[in-house]
Amino acid sequence: MRYLLSIILVLVVSLPVYAVNFRELFEREFLSKPWTIERAEESTCIECHTSDLMKPELRNIPQEWKKSWHYKNDISCDDCHGGDREDKSMAMSHKRGFVGKPGYSEVPDFCGKCHIGILKNYKMSGHGRALRYTGTGPNCVTCHGSHNIQKASLDIIYERRCTQCHSYERAKAIKQALFDIEDKMGRLEEDILSLRAQGVYMDEEERELFRTKAEFRTLFHTIDVNLIKDNTEKFSERLDAIDARVKDTFKELVFRRNYSIFLMLIFIGMAVIISVISNRYRE
Questions:
Q1: 3 membership: H or E segment, kind and range
Q2: Which of helix, strand or coil describes residue 277?
């Protein structure tokens, strides 16, 4: 009992110190920080582009970026444009790799720093050759936008966009060739997410699906209908193999649940039988 009272006394005496430290920590880390954005988003890029001193046409860039697929995958301003987002004095320094806004014809190489396979196929395509020889062909931004870049999908291909440069017939044929594979990949992605929500992680299948999507969409940038059609069967077989493993996992889950229910019913039945027998013995 004496030791217990001593511990309580020490805690009571120390409480004001802990309270002060907590209050200082709270004020420093929370009250002094805006609650509307995560701390990871704080950068000199965001601070500058949201400032009243920035040109109006550049002020919306951070909000556009926050709607993008890049933002959802933690791709920040400096990952594309270089510079130092934590140091104002070096934010736009070429010593820190700052490149700013690329010229129109420089956009493919700018994006191709990450999208290497796509860049190679794009440069071989009619789009890439048109840009190289005339300087006016479509670049990445023409189809995908600049900052509000969305997850790749067939919605990117539509008549109003494509007919800015040429007829829609070729683009329509490519979209039709892509449809079955894109549909399979979409359904597989939903199934894997459904399993993950149930606590089943199919990491190998998820990686294989990611590789398949990346390779297939890289192939699309050749803008070659025949090439896409010729490779459709190969990609379909890869997706079918993943789908078979995913379906087997769903079947196993159903079996386990049914087996669990079966065991539970057996235990309940046994409990009822034991209860009936016990009551008879008492009588």
A1: helix 2-26
A2: helix
